[in-house]
Design a protein that fits this description.
- The chain has 361 residues and is of the alpha/beta class.
- 45% of the residues are buried.
- Bound molecules: 4'-deoxy-4'-aminopyridoxal-5'-phosphate.
Length: 361
């Protein structure tokens, strides 16, 4: 007799992962092609010598570092095993069956999975044609049953980012008892002059007694620590306190905490590598435009090809040439910016792609 499990989870698709062939060029998961910043590897080695002890479950040292950096109290900072863990905790904190979680689509696929996990109804709001979140439609989708809203900027997978004025207007339009998550996983690659710095915004908004926006960032992308699993959020103290009480004890490892603290001391190296990624991003985009693709402007470390029905054929075409990219079947393909050599291999593959209808795209 099968064990009783939640029937509403019977058709759960799960998070998609792809097998990675040896020697493949990995441009499918928005990681950086570089390792941890100097001297983070050394710090990881030292911290590994103490893994017979449990980590500090409160993450005190890292939270103090982050609080100092963003001008908030340590009580406003939450840590998670990746910011994905914080996304889940925020859903667990706010939403139950019958409630709604509103988010843009296509966007970070975990939003859908997380909504299902907590039994809430997912309300997906289509993006604008330029690949950015449609804040007007998102605001319209917020209703009586909405408990949580995700706003992703730059949006994964399209790369479009939002400006300060439109974001502030949106936050002000959401009822103050609905929590809004500003997901800034790719913040370090944003260069638009009117960008809203979510951490500063939440700091000021919380100080004014308005606690319904939380900003999330991660060490997985620009800091090169995707495998370490560590991300963070800044909110008002009440939300952060509730998140901490809900978190799985010891889920953020001691090695990850040490690596994150050391990473925060490497600002100069971080800026250099982000500049290199952005330069490559623009070079790859120009080349793809030259091949006849339409590519939205990206504020992240990836680019979006809106190939529609040809998305999966393009992915397979690249895979056959040893290049892994991420397809969203029927919608498009997301390509992470790699090293110059990796991007050259991808561009060579892209140049050879022909849709079934002929050479044009
Ligand atoms: N938010 C967005 C928009 C992402 O793309 C990702 C990773 N792909 C995350 C959150 C989660 O990152 P992590 O859990 O590695 O911190």
């Amino acid at each position: 007799m099968p064990v009783r499990t939640r029937p509403d989870l019977d058709d759960l698709a799960g998070f998609s992962t792809v097998p990675i062939p040896a020697d493949a060029v990995e441009l499918a998961s928005n990681e950086l092609p570089f390792g941890p910043l100097d001297p983070v590897l050394e710090v990881i080695g030292r911290a590994a010598g103490r893994v017979h002890r449990y980590p500090d479950s409160s993450g005190r040292v890292l939270r103090e570092h982050l609080a100092g950096r963003f001008g908030v109290t340590p009580g406003q900072v939450s840590l998670g095993a990746g910011s994905i863990a914080l996304c889940l905790q925020l859903a667990q904190l706010t939403s139950a069956p019958g409630d709604e979680i509103v988010f843009p689509w296509p966007s970070f696929e975990a939003y859908s999975l997380i909504a299902r996990t907590v039994g809430a109804t997912a309300r997906r709001v289509p993006l604008r044609p330029d690949g950015r979140v449609d804040l007007t439609a998102l605001a319209d989708a917020v209703g009586d049953r909405t408990r949580l809203v995700f706003v992703c900027t730059p949006n994964n997978p399209t790369g479009g980012d939002l400006g300060r004025a439109e974001l502030e207007k949106f936050f002000d339009s959401v009822p103050e008892d609905v929590l809004v998550v500003l997901d800034e996983a790719y913040w370090e690659f944003v260069r638009r002059p009117d960008a809203l710095d979510g951490m500063a915004y939440v700091r000021d908004r919380s100080a004014a007694g308005r606690g319904n926006v939380v900003a999330l960032r991660t060490f997985s992308k620009a800091y090169g620590l995707a495998g370490m699993r560590i991300g963070y959020g800044v909110s008002c103290e009440d939300v952060a306190d509730r998140l901490r009480r809900l978190a799985l004890p010891y889920s953020v490892s001691s090695v990850a905490q040490a690596a994150a603290v050391a990473s925060l001391d490497a600002d100069e190296a971080l800026a250099l590598r982000c500049a290199a990624v952005i330069e490559e991003r623009e070079r790859v985009r120009t080349e793809l435009l030259g091949l006849g693709h339409e590519i939205p402007v990206s504020g992240a470390n990836f680019l979006w090809l809106g190939l529609g029905p040809h998305a999966d054929a393009f992915r397979l075409h690249c895979l056959e040439r040893g290049v892994l990219v991420k397809a969203f079947p029927g919608e498009g393909v997301r390509i992470t910016v790699g090293t110059g050599g990796e991007n050259a291999r991808f561009l060579a593959a892209a140049a050879e792609f022909r849709t079934p209808a002929g050479p044009a795209l």
